[in-house]
Amino acid sequence: MSYFTEAQSAEAVNARLGADIDPRLDRIMRSLVTHLHAFIKDVELTGEEWATAIDFLTATGRICSAERQEFILLSDVLGASMLVDAINNRRPDKATQNTVLGPFHVAGAPVREMGASICLDGGGEACLFEGMVTDIAGQPIAGAEIDVWSDNADGFYDVQQPGVQPQWNNRGRFLTDKDGRYAFIGIKPVSYPIPYDGPVGQMLEATGRHPWRPAHTHFIISAPGFDRLVTHTFVAGDAWLESDAVFGVKAPLIVDYEPTPDAATPWRCAFDFVLAPAHA
Question: What's the pTM value of the predicted model, to 2 decimals?
Fold first, then answer.
């Protein structure tokens, strides 16, 4: 029998796990208990500090709603979301890299014609987004679906401002042509802060961190026979690129937005997406 002692605390807890537990759950729980107990011992956590942690998690749960998931936000700012994403989306070097989905994706955006605008409120600086979707050998992928969404000129997504922004503002889906090309009009995205009026914001302030995300546009690219790609493109030169609050920036996803002579569409963002073959 294993009695609980400070020295053998994790072993005592793990000894209580059942013999017929699911093997994957057994591995996860044993590792969780081992690392949690090692952390508590490492920092010699006080009872007051543990109570503060419980209060923080309780407050995090209370602020969650159908429109807001504070636990996902907590995962994001601790880098856990990006680490899970990286582990589960290892791809060949030539393939476009994944990054976090974010909380503002909405399934079922309208399918729009090639070259159409997704900006419905008329705000922001118009930008032509264009490029190709190819496989890792450089062959074009026809009929690939590009699901795109971004914030508006004030840094808010349409779901954050129902009744203020039109539904599906700065959202749309496009299909690549026979040459794997895509093109649409959106806006040059702007930087914005993640929600910081709750427990996660208080944690950021207490730890000397800011809540800002660099300007970016979201994409989900999918095609039969290929891994689904969830990614962003980031605006080169943005002040927050090296300190993204959710650690989502990867260097190959930073894009130069080029000025154009077209007053109606003063910016151009050219980016080619490379899909990896589906896992067997």
Answer: 0.91
